[in-house]
Amino acid sequence: MRRHGVLALSAIVLPAAFVAVLGYVSLRQWAASAELLFREQARDVAAMAAEKVEMMLRHAEDGFLDQLRAALASPGPPGPAFDALLARAPLVGRLYVLDHRGAAVYPAGSGADASVVARLRAEGSRGLWERGGRRDLLLGDDVWVVTLVKGRDGAPLLVGCSRDREALRREVFETTLGALESPTMIAILDHQDRPVYSRGPLDGAQRLLAVPFREGLPGWRVAVYQPPGASPRAAVRRQVALFTTAFGVLLLAIVAGIAATWRLMGRETEMARLKSDFVANVSHDLKTPLSVIRMFGETLEMGRVPDAARRQEYYRVITRESERLSRLIDNVLDFSRIESGRRRYDIVPTAVEPMVRATLEAFTYPLEQQRFKVEVTVAPDLPPVPMDTDAVGQALANLVDNAIKYSADDRALAIDARVIDGRLALAVTDRGLGVPKAEQARIFEKFYRAGRSDTQGRRGSGLGLALVRHVVEAHGGAVTVESGPGAGSRFTLWLPLAAGPGASHA
Ligand code: ADP
Fold this sequence. Notes:
alpha+beta, Beta-Lactamase, five-stranded antiparallel sheet, binds adenosine-5'-diphosphate
């Protein structure tokens, strides 16, 4: 049994451990690849967004420069034309135009910021005049685009225009990124990592990565965020927790199932053992009185007993043994009736004392022969008690039979009937072997016989007390035992004084 248990348990534990390890490893791998994929996607989205912004920015600037060239080409002073141009181009914050010597053509006079003019001039001297092209610069907090355009006289002019942050946010970022289909949380950060624009609130969100603009916005970056708790790692952690819980519950259910099956198996095995003991015991119990009856009968028949007193004793032995036989057969038959639910009780008010005396009568011979001290006390004022006389008589007989059977040297039997707490208490007391506390509940189970060798040495079916309990319960009563090893036993039948509802039949 133990070996089977270990086998069954390892048959679960090993595969379970294997599945757990496998699950854990594959979850880890899945987590790693999910995170990689997520990052790659985020990088793609950021790069695409940067490209879109750059394209839009270039387009707007090209438009502005075209208009600037047109303004330069038209007659009249360029100042007012530039003013008008600026008013129409919100993306351009400030506009500076320098001539070849580095003097500010626009804004004229005191409107020019000397430091900006100096920076633009320096940029010009860094090869812009010779090579031309377009440069993006960071001046202070602003991003400037610097390039050359042809002046009215054909000489190149240096044009610098700053980009207006607010207009960028509104006209470029919002229109390009706001329309992006991906649900990714995206933001534009300036050269000091301050968010200029963000899709959705960034509080608590974790920055996943940032991609710099290739041109147009030096030092600025497109950043991708993930909302709190939305990282693939957190998702995996949730999956792991879920998996572990589900797995644990499954394992628990399997173990509980096995434990239950095991218990059931144990009970079945025990029941099978008890039944086979029962068959052996009953066969023996049937055979013993039969062979005694036969032996004494034959002896009498042959007329070999001249002594009349002897003959009388032989007759009594035969009667006693047949009574034992009847009791045993009654027990077995009753038991099978009870098991199949066919046992009926005929409960009528009955005088207790005659029932007790009649029951004891059957034991006169063994009690006398084994020199039992017998004491019967029936309270004189007992009312008639509702009972099935045969059934209660049989229950009492079983108790007396046990008292005799399980007695040792101190042979005493006391029967006591009185009313306690409004119930009839019919007690059978002996000074025999007693029943250990641990077994007291089990001795009332069918086929159960207390396991000690001294009681097992006495033959029995293990049905007696099961029948007793059934009979008293059918009367709405109970049976109790007070006993200790070597201290004797007191079995008490408790019967209600008035038949309760449902007590009349089993
Ligand atoms: P059995 O046929 O074995 O007597 P019972 O159901 O009558 O079956 O009793 C069950 C067990 O309870 C007995 O095997 C015995 O161990 C124990 N038992 C019953 N009555 C007594 C008693 N008066 N003294 C000691 N043990 C008892």
